[in-house]
Amino acid sequence: MTKPNQIQRWLIAMTLFILCEWVIVYPALAGASQTKLPQGYPQTRRIKIKINQSWKFHLGGPDEAFYHADFDDSGWEEVCVPHTLELTSLALNGYKDDKYQMTFHRDVGWYRRTVRVSDNPDKKIFLEFEGAHQVTDLWVNGKHVGQHAVGGYTPFHFDISKYVRFGAENQVTLMVDNRRRDDCPPDPGPFDYIKFSGLYRDVYLVETDPMHITFNWEALKAGVTITTLSVDPVNLNATINIKTVVRNESDTARNCTVVNRIIDKEGFVVLKLIQTSPIAAGDDYEFNQIGGIEENVRLWSIHDPYLYRVNTLVLEKGQEIDFVETKMGIRKFELDAEEGFRLNGKLIELIGYNRHQHYGYIGDALPNSLHYKDMLQFKEFGFNVVRTAHYPQDDALIEACDELGILVYEEPPTWISIGNDAWFDNYEKAARVMVRNHRNHPSIVIWGAGINHRGYVPRAHYAIKQEDPTRLTASQNSRWTGWQTSGLTDIFANMNYGPVDWNRDEPLLAMEGGSGPATVATYKKDPMMPGIISWTAHAYYTFHPNRNPNDRTRGGSMSVFRYPGSRLFWYQSEMKEDPIVKIVREWKQGMGDLIIYSNCEEIELFVNKKSIGTFKPSTDPRYSGLDHPPFVIPVQAFEAGELLAQGKTNGKVMASQTVHTPGIAAAIKLVMDTTGRCFKAGGSDILVGYAMIVDKNGTHITDTSHRVHFTVKGDAFVVGDGADIDANPALAKNGVAPVLIRSGKTAGKVTIIANSEGLKSGSTVVETIPDQADMILANALPIYDMEKVKVDMGATGQLIQFDWIPWNSEDNQPSTLNLDAFGGIEASVKTVTGRGVIRWLGEMNVIGKFGFVYGEGVLGFDDEGLALEFKGLPSGKYQIKTYHHFVPVSKTDSMDPNREKLKTQNINKLPYAKSIHIKVIDANGEGAVKTANTTQGNNIQNRNPATFTTQFESDGKKSVSLIMKDARENKGVWLNGFELSEWP
Amino acid sequence: MKLNLMVLFLFLFVASSQLTAQDAGLPEGYPETPRKITCMNAGWRFHLGDAEGAFYGIDFDDSQWVTINVPHTLKLTSLALDGCQDDSTQPTFHRNVGWYRRFIDVDGSANKKVFLEFEGAHQVTDAWVNGKHVGQHAIGGYTPFHFDITTYVTPGKANQVTLLVDNRRRDDIPPDPGPFDYIKFSGLYRDVYLVETDRIHITFPWEERFAGVLITTPSVDPLNGTATIDIKTVVRNEQDKPQKCSVLTRIIDKDGCVVLRMNNSAIVVPASDKLFSQCGGIEENLHLWSCDDPYLYRVNTTVFCEGIPVDCLENPLGIRKLELNRHDGLLLNGKPIEIIGVNRHQHYPYIGDAVPNSLHFKDILQLKELGMNTIRTAHYTQDNALINACDQLGMLVYEEAPSWINFGSEKWFANLEEAARRMVRNHRNHPSIVVWGGGINHRGTVPRLHYAIKEEDPVRWTASNNSEWAGFQGSGICDLYSNMDYAGVPDWTEKEYLLAMEGGRGPRVISKYKADPLRLGMLLDRARLLQFQAAQAGISR
């Protein structure tokens, strides 16, 4: 068996990690396709269908009139979105533009398809675009609907209700114009990256009722805005403000109810906010709701990126009219001027990379899976921050950051220069739309307000702050000119490639800079330097002058195909908890020092099974501040063969790696990167693979220049096949030839084969799964909206609080309480024999979260036990939580207004059961006996009172009882209150 | 320079001593608009009692009634509380009504809006104009309100106004029904104004979540001397046709120079409000507001229709940055500051709550002279003059809505929430205010109050003001944990900051707070207070 090499090990490790963690947690990613809405999910009049497929495409002809409804486009090529006007070679197709990009991809694309809309003529019909390069004109059934000319990086929509034929196919034509403009930033340039082209982000058909939630980017107040005004990582609660703008496009005023439900990961509603208002015809109305999660809020963090869902439902007379669902992560971030960046109260060093959205061959036209994969790879290397250099990026990227736990610095498109008034208006609009579109994402913590200008850009900062006062803005100065400070913005961010004019008055965030252990060390040891966002994660396409005309990609700790450079593995050792050993140089003659990245204390090396010594990490002062400097081991006498590195901590082997001296190129190992993702049929999705040149033992050979030719069996295509972009065959650079496989229309098995002359070919089989175009079905998860009632028991005068229903009664008699919950039920408390004794206690002070609940209650003595009975519960499942706490003496002092009354209490002197047997008698008969142990004390600030939780079932006829009895003898049973809720 | 100093001196003098004397003409550059605000404190005819008296008739003869001036208390009070033996639910003391009558002159221009504005009255107020009932305010005695009397008045004439100010005990108006450990005094005890505006006008700040003028400073950078200023202005169109309006907002420094202009236009449709949202900043020579240097800018908001100014208001703007960190505790403009101050009830001997603005100002001036830097407006919302004084003199404020330990009915809770919202809307533009109280001595936090306050004002801290005997000893849902510290706070976890919003006094106590950055500060118990708590014989109440 051949030993896996570095990249294979990395891919395998990721597979295991991801299969175990992510796919299970995120079923939507696994492509699980449901055909009907899950339990509790609203069925409204909103429809959202992805229309990425079946576009007819024509390149060029800006002055043509290809928009007529009856124009014959049958001779045009059929394409799928994301789409680039032209595929691109690493040599930028031989173009010689400068940074103004005068000619490259400066063309228009025509896109035509039909769209079927529903047959209800009252509906509003929209086309929604996540982004297109860069001016988009739309015609429906031959009529011009409108033009979007703000820029290529932000979303937009057109209302086509007046242009469509309902219940029929409608012809849609788009002209997507990427010609150079003076007024659309980053045009007219210069910019040091390529502005690619085409209809390169997802397109949707959206249908709604005339009364509907607006699109988030329409106005300062639009769509759904979620903010968390107080987040308390100590007491674990959060205050949540949700603003929802509903538009009434009917002819008459309508009464609108907005229900916002916050749903946890298991599907349970943890907060429900309801507000009703009439909306006049033609008006927008902002519903402003506030509430909170008051117990055990689960915070979002880079280590535990927990997401709640906010389901926003519009009702009218009880009918479900419209809805949207938004993910919500609750976190608190602070920039402490002395200590650094805090997330949920804990200091973290921001360590990550800039990320351009460029990809080899396809330019900006990445499918969502590759955006996700990029962030998954970030996470695997241990990065915790990404900057979306130099423009707003795909929704899929930001969603990935939310789900994976990566902080985001996002910025509107500009670069160094500033244009005319129209340019500035568009720049401001792009900034506002960026914020509106992404403001609900917990991952985003910083908005960039300018890129490398001569100082900060007040207009960008003001616009962003007006849109979102809750996040930090960063002035991103150039290091050559201008004031070197945060200026008006909240954070001073600068490029840190060398000396920076920084006087240490305020923290400095490097939003660009070098990478690797020595660079990161300078940040980690300095609390005034909260982080380094290195330049760049991946090589990106640019007309920046370079020496290699065959490869115009620049920078990058990974290739433009995401193949990682060895330096990145150091980040894993520094940032991740799992024990890691990575040998990063080939074991061969003349290799120089042996470099190993590991988070173990020491490394023992074995050459051909023989130990050659144990080594410690480098003590080079350049690395001071790091937890895990690299191991730099001089190779005294090289011996070809096998090298084993064992990482040890406290003498125990925690991780190890074996490598071999490379031999002669013999075969291709084809690794398709399927980890953490699925490969969707339909034609939009792309799977990336790496053909690795290996010797006969499977050891990777890096010094080859083979050309690898790829073929596919099954419904899929090699991207660039037949195009003149050197994609197939592809040159193996450093022994790796990349390949992009685009799915076909039908799902099924796909075999990819890699051949190269003189090498044994490699092949891999993957499977495509059907895509779900219905975005509501694709994303819907169950909602368990359970009614709940909370009852606080005690004598008259007991301390009571909001949300709890008081149950006060007299001693020594059965007591009943009528509750409105569950359609009206009756609760009663009595002794089972009817001969026992019941005492009610009030007015005891207890310190603790719900001290008012468990301060007082009922004490019941009976041979057969104390019964809590419910009559009239509708048929179904329920959960009950009961409180069993005893207060020996009240907490009080001279300031207490109840002090005098408390002196007369003596119920607390009666004997009580320390251990209680509890059983349920419900529709299923008598349940098993379980035990609860009574707690006691007048201060349980730092612990919880005894509670007992169980589920039961009602048949809708018989009453349900909870029987509580002293487990040992016949002392009194304490019951302070209960919470009763429906259960799924 | 000399002139500037003179202007500055005059401004300070006028503002601080609350003199209302105004020259015949407006000063240079000040917009002249249809808005008129006339103080109506003087010359009311007063009658004590007779709740059912129906004394509101236009022809009712009040010539035998006593003439009084506002601020007014139903009865003057001895230090012994007139010998009254009530308990802390105050069933009888000042539980009466007062009738107030006078004439007001209304502008002859027929097309104006006319309002009566009240800074506060104890505690239910009914108003009649020319014999017709205009409305009732029944939220509570500590927050402002107004009545639109446009359709009740005859322009250009003297119009009869009658008020019934009812302080009888209610179940649904906090802090009633009690108990509370202070006296709820009585009467038309805060200023009254006649406000006349154009039919296009800025709304009163307490009308809605978005109303009047809202000023926030989303970024303040003490180091680089810059600030971002967000201003939202709500304009109402009470004409019957749509009107294109522009809102000109000018930030004016203490010398009267405009340092920022923001101008936006929009069509305001009839019978609707339009929110104008503006964001800009001061990028050079920023002058921050602090306790030592309470520098105030003015925000002049002028509404134009077709180039003609139709409404104009001013708000104070003090630019400051508040932060918390574990080394230094509270930082004001980047510099550590220990909160050292007092609780302040609005009681005054003999006159109860009916304190003229000058005495509110004097209280803060006196505390400032004693070296205090913070007050808590125990246990309710206090006079605009007090908050203005804090702005002008550099005193931080912890303000709260009226409640005390117990809860009332749903209606009571709705009134408490409304009182909290009005408090925030009325005082949110004051730089001195740093903390809103989210409840007083309840058994833990009061989420409903916190949520209402946060919705109104997301930029300030709320404080859970727990009782020390019961409930959760933590900030809970509020931003800051505050508790009484009369003999230590033994249940404090020390995992979060502690603000002693009440407690002991003297160097030993203060030194404990100054030494610990987690202890943000101490507000001494009661500067002055009259109360019905079990008083020991011979001791004044």
Evaluate the radius of gyration of chain A: 32 Å
List low-pLDDT spans of chain A: 10-31
Cα-to-Cα separation, first versus last residue of chain A: 50 Å
Specify the overall morphology of chain B: globular
Most extensive interface between two protein chains, with residue counts: A-B, 61 and 61 residues
* General form of chain A: globular
Structural class of chain A: mainly beta
Strand order of the largest sheet of chain A: 22-23-24-25-26-27-28-29
Describe what this molecule looks like in 3D.
The complex is a heterodimer of chains A (984) and B (541). Chain A is mostly beta strands and 984 residues long. In chain A, 10% of the residues lie in helices and 38% in strands. In chain A, the strands form 14 sheets. Chain A has an eight-stranded parallel β-barrel, surrounded by four helices. In chain A, strands 50, 51, 54, 56, 57, 58 and 61 form a seven-stranded antiparallel sheet that branches. In chain A, strands 3-2-4-9-6-7 form a six-stranded antiparallel sheet, with no helix packed on it. The model of chain A is unreliable at 10-31 (pLDDT under 50). Chain B has 541 residues and is α/β, with parallel strands linked by helices. Chain B has six helices and 29 strands. Chain B has an eight-stranded parallel barrel with strand order 22-23-24-25-26-27-28-29, surrounded by four helices. Chain B has a six-stranded antiparallel sheet with strand order 3-2-4-9-6-7, with no helix packed on it. At the A-B interface, strand 12, strand 13, strand 16 and helix 5 of A face strand 12, strand 13, strand 16 and helix 5 of B.
